Amino acid sequence: MKGVTKAVHDALDLASPTVEHETIQAVNEALLLGSLRQHALVEAAETANIQLREEIDEHKLTETALHRVQVQLSDQAAELEALVTERTAALTATNRQLEAVVYSLAHDLRAPLRAMQGFSELLVEEAGATLNEASRGYADRINKAAQFMDALLCDLLDFSRISQQRVELTAVDLATLVDSVLCDLQKDILRKSARVERPGPWPVVLAHTSILTQVLFNLVSNALKFVAPDVPPQVRLHTEERAGVIRVWVEDNGVGIEPNYQEQIFRLFTRLHGEKYPGTGIGLAIVRKGVERMGGQVGMESAPGEGSRFWFELRKE
Amino acid sequence: MINEKRILLLADDSENDLLLMRMAFKKVEADIALQEVHNGEEAIAYLQGVAPYSDRNHFPLPTVMLMDLNMPKKNGFDVLTWVRAQPGLKRLSIIVMTASTRTEDIERAFELGTNAFLVKPGNLDALVTMLRCLWDWIRISRFAPLDA
Prior knowledge:
The complex is a heterodimer of chains A (317) and B (148). Chain A has helices spanning 2-14, 16-127, 133-164, 174-184, 186-191, 209-225, 283-293; strands at residues 170-173, 195-200, 204-207, 234-242, 245-252, 297-302, 308-315. In chain A, 64% of the residues lie in helices and 14% in strands. By secondary structure, chain B is an alpha/beta fold. Chain B has a 5-stranded parallel sheet, sandwiched between helices.
């Protein structure tokens, strides 16, 4: 068979005009095929284009919808923010009004107290000889009660002032401030034969002088006050520095505080003792409020019978 | 001037406080004549010498005025403002003595020209101590004469 095919091929090779014709036809066919294929490609591209356009349109729709939602959201956020601002302003105003009421209340209540205290004392002075012991005792009770209430109102006024006043922080030299507080408490320290150590170191901190003075005064006078009877108070003041923050420690050898009361004692009007350690329950609330107004924190560590270690933190200058 | 009797004008609307101050000055044994007015308008009338204070023999110009801030009609700030605007009175020594401990009140009182600011003490002993200091200060001070 191979021989036959070869013979046919040879014969065809010789017949050249026929070959030429066939070649042209083949080329034509190829051209036609190419053109058909091109056409198909164009069609496919067009279909793809349409699809793409559709997809773009769809995308645009989605985008518009998304934008609309975004606008709505930001409108709502703005509305919410306005509402929050409004409510905050209202709350701040109420708060300020309340604090102003506390101030004028405490202020006005002191006037009749001055009269009660002053005149009960004058009564005993001038008529003391004609009064019997019980009557003198009553006058004395009026006097003491009025004095206590006055102390209460003074502390409340201090608390309210610290809450309300504008607080600008400046560089405060702790060394000078500690000196002046201990000087103010000198009488108390001598009367109780207390030992006060103050190893420091005493850097310069960012604080408000009068508020910081009151904070330290309250802490040290507490340390001198809450000791077991006949125990000379021992107070130690020192500092620690960590990452630009100064922690001031006020440690004592006092009666200490049980763990479950250690948070409570910083609240207004909290007292843990009866008449053995008289007080208004405002001192530590002033300490906390004062330190907070200066951007710091307060805390304490203690166990009953083992003294207390109070601390507060302020930023270093 | 140093041998003249010192005159203190008390301006306070609280009768109780006025009486307590009189008692406290008595305890201090201050050689001082006390005059009193009960509100800001009365204080201004007294200093002006208008009725009912026109008789300077009975109502002499004070050496020092000890004045409350919170008074009816005209308060202590109004009186301070008025006094410092009077050519004949601007040298008058004024001491504010009030129950207020507000920083703004202290600042404002000094801005308006008070010479000192005292806070009313809560008990008689403290008041006596305060007025003793005040009397000592008045005793050792020289005051410029007023020519109202």
